[in-house]
Amino acid sequence: MKEKTIFECKTCGHKEPRWLGRCPECGSWNGFEEKKGPVKNRKQSEHGTAVSIPLSSISNEEEMRLSSGINEIDRVLGGGIMKGSAVLVGGEPGIGKSTLMLQLAASVNTNGRILYVSGEESPGQIKVRAERLNISSENIEVLSETELNSIVNVLNNVKPVLVIADSIQTLHSSEIDSSPGNVNQIKYCTRQLIEYIKTRNIVLFLVAHVTKEGIIAGPKIAEHMVDTVLYFDHGEAGVRMLRSVKNRFGSVDEIGLFTMTETGLKEIRNPVDAFIMHRNLTGENKELPPGITTAIVYEGTRVYFVEIQSLVVPAKAGISRIFSDTIDSRRISRIAAVLEKHVKLKLSSMDIYVTIAGGIHVNEVGIELPIALSIYSARINVPLPPNMASAGEVSLSGELRPVSHMERRIKTGADLGIRRIIIPVNSKLKTEQRYGKFITAAATLRESVKTVFSKMSTGPQDTFKKI
Ligand code: TYD
Ligand code: MG
Description:
With 467 residues, this protein is of the alpha/beta class. It has helices at 42-46, 61-64, 71-76, 97-107, 123-132, 148-158, 183-198, 217-225, 329-342, 368-380, 406-415, 432-435, 445-454, 460-466; strands at residues 3-9, 15-16, 32-38, 65-66, 81-82, 86-91, 114-118, 140-144, 162-166, 203-209, 228-234, 239-247, 255-261, 264-267, 292-299, 302-314, 322-323, 350-356, 388-390, 393-394, 400-401, 420-424, 439-442. The site of magnesium ion has 4 residues, from helix 4.
């Protein structure tokens, strides 16, 4: 009879075909041990050897996750690190992967041991970095080794709950006849490590160097083998972004934001206004420059404020052109056309420049109404109120369409001192009563322009008619 791997609970002897964190029979934790057992043929198992387990006995997701101790990482991973999962962390050399991993090792919420395997640096070098980061965690073990069997031996001794391999390009196995970094080596070593951690419910973080020119073959292969793929990348203004491009345990549109400081990576905990230019609107500068407004956007699962800046000037070439580095220019053309047709704003033979301060890119449709208001303000050279923001989609017919998560946008806006929020009518709102005094709902772009500029000292109706 053939041999097959089964898992047996140390406490009660209950058997399972695969590893489980909690025994469905006696409820004890982490008690399953790998055993070899005879394979029963199909007929036998059809006669009652298969066992179902009560749904209520299966541990829920929270118990399956570990907190990394770093908010931004937990969120990008979908609410913490899934136990027994393999995570690839890719990025250009120098972006801060090793720093991030060492900080994670120090802050992860566990009493178990953490093994940091480095093929790139000596223990001395790692120590220097740890000192710089002010890390003196007792449960981090460091290993400078690149050969897989040696690493596995150490794993067997240390029995960590989390292992970091930095980087997969340096790993190699003496059983494979090719040099480190070679696709076959990466494939083999990654597979072996994943198998090892899966059967023991250990977490694996694999670091991969990825160059700008393109994602090199090795890490690409590893991407298919791991549960989660994170990329660490440069954003604007020194911001470093951690994005998830594959995640079996969460969504992929979250981003984590960090800045690199003298003492390691710091989280940008409250990115809501990270991209907003802070102006001191006192004394003579009580007004914003024309063409500037705040958009409340919803990207991933977070609300951000972004500052839209527009400039409208007579076209040098006689024909109007649109310039934008951060917003799709077709979107701006469409909004400009709606402004001409439905708001009677003359834009022909004008060059239109639109940008988002801080250089972040926004794809979300809610940015259309703020863009329209910003272009309008730039064209008539009348500033918008400083504590006003907006969100909404602009349709070709000049109507405003509701956008998602308006509740959260309004709440965040109000919490951060926005006192007037322009939104489309029909926006789904429960908070109307609480924030009602801040909200102005408009059915059309024309109506929103009218109401925004009519309350202003510059004589709105005049301005509106003049254009
Ligand atoms: P590193 O984590 O080694 O990047 P990677 O592993 O992705 O190649 O470090 C990235 C850069 O960050 C490095 O040039 C030095 C710098 N750095 C700081 O500015 N502050 C710090 O506290 C640390 C540890 C590094
Ligand atoms: Mg490194």
